[in-house]
Description:
8 helices; 2 strands; two-stranded antiparallel sheet
Amino acid sequence: MRGDQHVYLSLTTAGLLIAPSVPVLDPALIAVLFFGVFVGSLAPDADAVDAAIFNGRIGGMKGKRGQVLNGFAVVLPVFGYTIRYLIYYPLSLVFSLILRKSYRHRHRGLLHSFSGVGLTSVILSGYLALILTWLGWSLALLPAFGLAFFAGCVLHLMEDACTPAGVAWLYPFSRRRMAGRVRTWGDFEVRPAAFAVVLALAAAGMFVAPFVTTVSPGDLRSLALVGTAVLWLLFMLICRVRCERRR
């Protein structure tokens, strides 16, 4: 998918999950969670030189929300080049040695797999911990950023799994891909935008629910989690996601 589609689908999903807890969460924690998902939603594309994470700008984002996100996007190249040269390339070398075969750098390869984004999240968090310690800053919010970054990466993979190129979740151990029928560059493809609207409306409902209902916060969080899973399952069915074997 395009960079802007990754961003608004990931952020609206995160909003739905976080919404029931907003009244009791520290605003700084909320900001860190959304920022982590924001960066993670673009991070797997660091294996492509023309990716949005290297541009410092998210194409397709318009209006005030687009200006706000593009304001945060100026830091994206720092993450993009760190991931590409200090995480992706070294991990590729390690996997090639472990598997005893040459590793060809390719888009939607290692960084578009569960093992790739998991290791990237851990290593990036380690780099940030070293930098924050050197600066004398607190590490209290770093775990939240790391988890949110990983969640954003996983959402990126779920979104790409809805496109014809698909995602090999177990790469490089398996080349079996999950692929769908969303052609994101078409003028008439409305499914990603429509799904983002549904997620945003559901998030808004979850946000106001604690103030207008007697449902406990714990039940609302469970409902948000189940609702997110159901909505994503329906979206993947609508996108006709299937498991395919490719060479």
